[in-house]
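Record type: ASSEMBLY
Status: queued
Input:
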Amino acid sequence: MNNNKVIQVKSLTKMFGDFTAVDAITFDIEKGEIFGFLGANGAGKTTAMKMLIGISKPTSGEAKVAGFDVYKQTEDIKKNIGYMSQKFALYDDLTVKENITFFGGIYGLSRKKIKEKSEALIEELGLEKVANQLVGALPLGWKQKLSFSVSLIHDPKIVFLDEPTGGVDPITRRQFWEMIYKAAHQGTTVFVTTHYMDEAEYCDRVSIMVNGKIEALDTPKKLKEQFKAANMNDVFLKLARG
Amino acid sequence: MGITISNISKSYKKVKALQHISFDVKPGELFGLIGPDGAGKTTLFRILTTLLIANEGLATVAGFDVVADYKSIRKNVGYMPGKFSLYQDLTVKENLTFFATIFGTTIEENYDLIKEIYVQIEPFKNRRAGKLSGGMKQKLALCCALIHKPEVLFLDEPTTGVDPVSRKEFWEMLKRLQQKGITILVSTPYMDEAALCDRIALIQDGKILEIDTPQAIVKHYSKPIYNVRAHNMYQLINSLKEYQYNHSVYPFGEYVHYTDKRTSFNPEELKMYLESENLTNIEIKITVATIEDTFMELAKS
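Status: finished
Output:
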């Protein structure tokens, strides 16, 4: 396997009865890349992502994530990836510190390591004053930034972000993307879904799923040229509306 | 007979959800409440739809007082909450019949109003609401909010989490409902949707930052904004943030929006600085403000 390709997907398919939710998708993602995974609601993004993070068995095709097989090595995949979504983030009734300790523990970090990580993370996010407050009381934007940092606590090779910025205010949304840039700069691969088309522009490459298939995959610049569109929103509308 | 809101405040224990909010929505207007989660949008909707009582202030909807005339308001408004609130274990048709009956009407009587939207979900009329896709649920919820022919329609974040294609279709539907004379108050966290409203209020932390037409709001932005690009976005953002004269630095799609503190700013000077930071393929062009620029500038101060 090519060491630079942290995700390798070939003809990956998932069927539910007669319905083909994901239809033979193929792509590779390199180390440190920010990969935007776009598509309309119901296009198959979530199903595809579930296969890649090892919680849904494909019907056919091949995929390796962080070097591990999505059929047989799902536990290894889970240890080597981070995951956050808008829906599942942190425990509201645990404090900031408790959440960090909990997730550090889940990933098998030593107490010493958890303490180090916890201090560094709280300082970096400027959460010193609220470190012992319940997460539920924090503004959404803070929660999402904390949640992203926690998803990186075990230094995963890849982090999967499922609509991480939905409903977040525009300033925090940008701070969030600066954190993504930083993680990618440090070599973490970022796999992200979003409905904000300006965010699609922040990605190194973008794929667009339509009815279970990947209908376009390239850099935002090339996609705009290919579809003669002024921005990614137009690219999306042209593709998804047919 | 649209909506009047005068000095409305609401607190939950220590949290000031709304602080002295005042604005009017004119009859037949499509008015947008633009702000992130936690801004107070839902609290305001619940006060206007008589589901919550304000701590202070007055408000009327379709000419009725939200406290004294709450029963009249409930007959005359449609409300689509942000959270899907239909009966998951009733079918599409059953949900719609239920809401029509509650309001003493029938689907047939007001079918004209919902026809365009309903035909899109009619193929699934015998499916349980809980089994519908996000887009379908949203259309059903809109039909249920319209079935009694309301004068005023309240839509709380109808497009959150919805893809750009469905969002565009949804706004086209709203425009057509407006043409039928319905006053619409809609909230959204998507700033690009603001441009589709007649007027908007920008709201954050329970306070109105500004109210005007979308065109006027972007004109109020006082500083020149520059689109800046270079070969490496991460380095570019870091370098711009370290630049001593920066007023704001925000990633915006393929560019960074940059404003300078000084009144006389020379882009060449910035270019030289960026070159000294080892950035290449530098591009600096003046651009126009968007609603999002305005929002961020107002939220910052």
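Annotation: Chain A touches chain B at residues 39-43, 86, 139-141, 163, 166-172, 174, 177-178, 181-182, 184-185, 195-198, 201-202, 220-221, 231-233, 236-237, 240-241 (CB under 8 Å).
Annotation: Chain A has one domain: 30-59+72-241.
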